[in-house]
Amino acid sequence: MKKNNVKAQMWFTDFVIAALIFSFILISYYTYTISISKRDTILFDEIVSDAKTVSSFLTSKGYPEDWNADNVIRIGFTDEYNRVDNEKFNEFIKMDHNKTKKLLGTTHDYVLFFLNGSGDVQNVEGYCGYGNCQSSIAYKKKAAYYHKDEIKLKQFMIDNFYADIYEYKTDQDIDDLIANINDYGLVVLESPELDTSEYNNLKNVVESFVSSGGVFMQSGRPIAANKREMLGVKFFKITGDAGKDKPATVIRGDEFITFEYSDQIVFNQVYYIEDVSIGSSLVDIARFNESDVEIADIMDNKIAVARWPYGKGKALFFSDFDAALLSGDFIENLKDSTLKWIGSECLPIDTSNADLENLVRIERLVIYNSKIVRMVLYTCNS
Prior knowledge:
It is globular and about 65 Å long. It has a 10-stranded mixed sheet with strand order 4-3-5-6-14-13-12-9-10-15, with helices on both faces. The longest helix has 26 residues, at 2-27. The protein has 2 domains: 2-135 and 348-380, no CATH class; 143-342, Rossmann fold (3-Layer(aba) Sandwich). A hairpin with a 2-residue loop joins strand 16 (359-368) and strand 17 (371-380). The protein is an alpha+beta fold. It is built from 8 helices and 17 strands.
C-alpha cells in the first residue's frame, strides 16, 4: 500500500510540474531577442521560422522514439512532461554540429543552453552549452594544466576552461604551478614524471588542495619511480614494453565516465594504480587485461581508469591520455568524461561576436533533474 502511495505522489508531482510548464507556455510560448534594425527582412523571417522549428524538434521525443546518434532521423530530447531525457541529450551533444543542423531542418547556425531559476547558465550533463553563432561557452572553474611531452588535453583545457598552461622546463614550470595551486579549482597533469624533489613538493600541496575541495586529474605517474603514494593511491608503470598494445577493459558503466561497459581501451603505456587508503569509495572503471600485463599482482591492482573522493575534493586517474578506443573515439570520450566529472558551474554565454542584426532568441521551459529550467536557443545567420 505504501508503494502505491509513493507512486501516486510521484505521479501527482510530475503532473503538477507538467501543468505549470504548460501554463507558462500558453502565456508566453516564444520570446524573442531581435535587432531593431533588420536589413534583410526575408532572411530574418527565415531565421525566425527555423528557430521555431528547431526548438519544437528539440522539445520532442525525436524519432525513432529510442533514437541514438547512429540511427537518429529527427533529434528531440524531452518526454511528454517536457522532462529532459539525459540519455538522449548525451547522444545529441556528442554529434557533429553540422549533422545536427541537417537533422533539425535548418541551414542556419544555432547555440543552445539552459538557465536555472536564478538566471545563471545551468550545467546540463557536463555541458554549459552547445553550438556556435560565434558565441563563447566556458566554465567558471579556474584551471591549470601541466604537461611534459604529451599534450593530448592541452587545447581542450584552453578552449573550455581558459586554463593557465604550465610546461616542463619553461618560465611556467611545475614549481610555479606548485606555488600557485591554491588559485585554481581544477588542476590537470598529463604524464608529468617529476624528479624526486618536485614530486615531494607536489604531493604535499596536491593533497592539501584536493582535501580543501579541489579537483585533480592525472594521466601516468607523478614520478618516474614506482610505488610512490599520493592522494591515497600508489602509482606504477610496467617498463620495457613501450610501443606495444596494452588493452584494458571497462568493467563498469559510470555516471561520469562515458565509456561503455566492456569497451576495450588500448593504452600506449601501462600506468596503473593500487588503492592504499581509499577503500570502497574508489570507483575503478577500467582494468588492464590479465593476459596482456605480465605482473603477479591481482586484477584489482591493475587499475587503468579510476575516480575517488579525497577530503572535500576528488581525483581522477587515467593510465594515459594517449590511447585508442576500439568502439569509438577515445579523445572525444575523454573530453566528455572530463566535463561530466568536473561538473563546473558555467560562465554567461557571450553572443557579442554574433551577427546581432539577424539573431533570434527562443525560450522553452523544460525540466532537468526535477527542476524547471529555461532552454534558450539562439538562431543566427551562418
